[in-house]
Amino acid sequence: MNIRIQIIIVAVALLAILYIIYKIRNKEIELRYSLLWLLLGMGIILFACFPEITKWLARIMGISQPINMLFFAGFCFMLPIIFSLSVAVSKLSNKVKRLTQEIALLQEEERKEKDEIMEKE
How far apart are CA 97 and CA 103, in angstroms? Predict the structure, then answer.
């Protein structure tokens, strides 16, 4: 791998890590969701600085080209991220449903109280 490309990859990964840390500090993203992204950034830096690791892993896994191993690793790494986000969306969906039902019950109770007050007058 060309040293210029390695420097660019490391610089972009470091910028991404700094951006994630900025988002964490401003409480725009929760730490538990950002940990995998931080690990991904560090992994990219590791593979960019030491391309021999990629070749070695590809050879051990029986993958003919190191770039194919990187695509495979990226795919495998994205699965837990996607799964954790799916779990978070499901939990939020259930909370929204429950809150909507509670609001509807409160509005119905409020409407009944208004009707009782109107009948008494």
Answer: 10
What integer is the mean pLDDT of 16-42?
Answer: 90
- Both tokens of residue 117? 């007050």
Torsion sign over Cα 38, 63, 67, 58: positive
As a whole number of angstroms, the distance between CA 80 and CA 93 comes to 20
Q: Is 27 left (phi over 0), alpha (psi -120 to 50) or beta?
A: left
Q: At what angle do helices 51-61 and 31-49 cross, to 10 degrees?
A: 100
Q: Per-residue pLDDT tens for 71-112?
A: 888 888 888 888 988 998 999 999 999 999 999 999 999 999
CB 13 within 8 A of CB 41: yes
Residues 31, 71, 76, CA angle at the centre, nearest 5°? 50
How far is it, in rounded angstroms, from Cα 91 to Cα 96? 9
Residue type, 83: F
CA distance 53 to 44: 11
